[in-house]
Amino acid sequence: MKHRASTLLLALAAAAPAVLFAQSCGICHLQPSMGVKTYGPPLNKASAGGNDEVMRVFIVNGSERMPAFKYYLKPSEIDAIIAYLRTVPGESR
Q1: pLDDT in tens, 22-77
Q2: CATH topology classification for 17-85
Q3: pLDDT, position 33
Q4: By C-alpha distance, which of 84, 83, 85, 59 is closest to 70?
Q5: Long-range contacts at 54-57 (CB < 8 A, ≥ 24 apart)
Q6: pLDDT for the residue numbered 12
Q7: N or C: which end of the chain has fewer CB within 10 A?
Q8: Are 43 and 85 contacting, i.e. CB atoms less than 8 angstroms apart?
């Protein structure tokens, strides 16, 4: 039983960054259904030229079309989102 509980906790911890991304960024960056465009660009490992610092600046400060998340997300949550995006395959546009 103890092994199953620890396995479940590890699985939940591994999924947490993806859930955080979906909750915080998904409204603009995840396609809601086939053929529907997103408001923001799809994000993946090539986003921001593959540069974590550039990605962090965008998330923290926002842009003309994107809100700043510096008051909403903790630095550790921003790091988790960036780490998650580095696992998402894709090419930059």
Answers
A1: 999 999 998 888 888 889 999 999 999 999 999 999 999 999 999 999 999 999 99
A2: Cytochrome Bc1 Complex; Chain D, domain 2 (1.10.760)
A3: 82
A4: 59
A5: 55/82, 55/85, 56/82
A6: 47
A7: N
A8: yes
